């Protein structure tokens, strides 16, 4: 696990250096790479998409929503629901904006696509607040969110696939209900799911950030790969979990009838399994050992408690 993580981190650094070097040849300075959102050069944000097909500013759509894509930069994103069959999208600013700084939206074939601003605009940290109001009770095929530095908040989202990608920002929600996959990629920021998350599989890839889940009910497995940050999970139903961290603790709360095997490979770290178990060949075996808890840390503890 450690070799894979090292290779991945090296690849990210190399890609970023090459991108910056390429832009530097044009004589630009103060370059900030904003992931999927685009590239900011001297405070000017640039991203490529067919802007002519998008509506400028606040808007309202009518139709069945099957997918949502949000590309944002800073501020806050709130998703709420109402009893109407319309989609209402609006934004507010802390800093006065011009036409190029207004959001762009497109609703076509059931897919709602929301962009922070035009293809090229000044971004003096406007800290815009985006509000998306959806018809109550909808089930999405996909929910995809990408942000540089923004906070995403909602009570509940139901989708086949849920994807969260953030450079520096947070996710704070009550429930995520996915019939297939939940995947999260965070450079620096915390993720909190307060009540429940359900899915076939759950993956969390983080450079620096804490993952906290209450009520995890994953069919296949949970995969957590973190350079620095804690992972805190309360299971509604036990499943396999794979945890890899350079520096960070794994804390699990499992059902009273959970049966599992714990393997913890650590350079510096303790293993505390606070339920009846036996130790066999550096493994902690609880009951029949139906599920697997694998943790590989350079520096970090594993703590497991029962409800």
Task: Describe this protein's structure.
This protein is mainly β. The protein folds into 3 domains: 1-33; 47-147, no CATH class; 169-307, no CATH class. Helices cover 7% and strands 64% of the residues. It is built from 1 helix and 24 strands. It has one helix at 2-24; strands at residues 31-33, 39-41, 44-46, 55-56, 59-62, 67-82, 86-92, 104-108, 111-115, 120-122, 129-135, 140-168, 170-188, 191-208, 211-228, 231-237, 240-247, 250-254, 260-268, 271-273, 278-280, 283-286, 291-299, 302-306. Strand 2 (39-41) and strand 3 form a beta hairpin. The longest helix has 23 residues, at 2-24.
Give the SSE layout:
Blueprint: H1 2-24, E1 31-33, E2 39-41, E3 44-46, E4 55-56, E5 59-62, E6 67-82, E7 86-92, E8 104-108, E9 111-115, E10 120-122, E11 129-135, E12 140-168, E13 170-188, E14 191-208, E15 211-228, E16 231-237, E17 240-247, E18 250-254, E19 260-268, E20 271-273, E21 278-280, E22 283-286, E23 291-299, E24 302-306
Parallel strand pairs: 6-9, 6-11, 6-12, 12-13, 13-14, 14-15, 15-16, 15-17, 16-18, 17-23, 18-24, 19-23, 20-24
Antiparallel strand pairs: 1-2, 2-3, 3-10, 4-8, 5-7, 7-11, 8-9, 19-22, 21-22
Descriptors for this entry?
307 residues, mainly beta, four-stranded antiparallel beta sheet, 24 strands, elongated
């Amino acid at each position: 696990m450690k070799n894979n993580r090292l290779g991945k981190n090296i690849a990210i650094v190399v890609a970023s250096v090459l991108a910056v070097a390429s832009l530097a040849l044009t004589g630009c300075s103060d370059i900030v790479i904003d992931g999927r959102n685009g590239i900011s050069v001297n405070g000017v944000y640039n991203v490529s998409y067919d802007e002519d097909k998008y509506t400028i500013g606040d808007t309202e759509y009518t139709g069945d929503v099957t997918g949502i894509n949000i590309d944002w930069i800073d501020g806050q994103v709130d998703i709420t629901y109402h009893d109407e069959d319309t989609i209402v999208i609006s934004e507010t600013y802390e800093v006065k904006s011009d036409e190029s700084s207004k959001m762009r939206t497109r609703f076509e074939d059931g897919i709602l696509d929301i962009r922070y601003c035009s293809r090229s605009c000044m971004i003096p940290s406007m800290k815009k607040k985006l509000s998306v109001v959806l018809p109550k009770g909808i089930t999405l095929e996909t929910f995809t969110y990408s942000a540089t530095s923004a906070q995403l908040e909602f009570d509940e989202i139901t989708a086949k696939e849920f994807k969260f990608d953030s450079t520096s920002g947070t996710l704070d929600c009550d429930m995520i209900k996915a019939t297939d996959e939940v995947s999260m990629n965070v450079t620096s920021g915390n993720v909190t799911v307060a009540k429940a998350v359900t899915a076939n599989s759950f993956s969390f890839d983080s450079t620096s950030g804490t993952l906290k889940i209450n009520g995890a009910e994953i069919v296949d497995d949970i995969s957590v790969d973190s350079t620095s940050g804690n992972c805190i999970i309360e299971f509604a139903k036990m499943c396999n979990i794979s945890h890899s961290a350079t520096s960070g603790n794994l804390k699990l709360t499992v059902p009273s009838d959970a049966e599992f095997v714990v393997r913890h490979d650590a350079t510096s770290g303790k293993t505390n399994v606070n339920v009846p178990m036996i130790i066999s060949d550096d493994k902690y075996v609880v009951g029949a050992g139906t599920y697997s808890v694998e943790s590989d840390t350079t520096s970090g503890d594993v703590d497991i408690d029962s409800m």
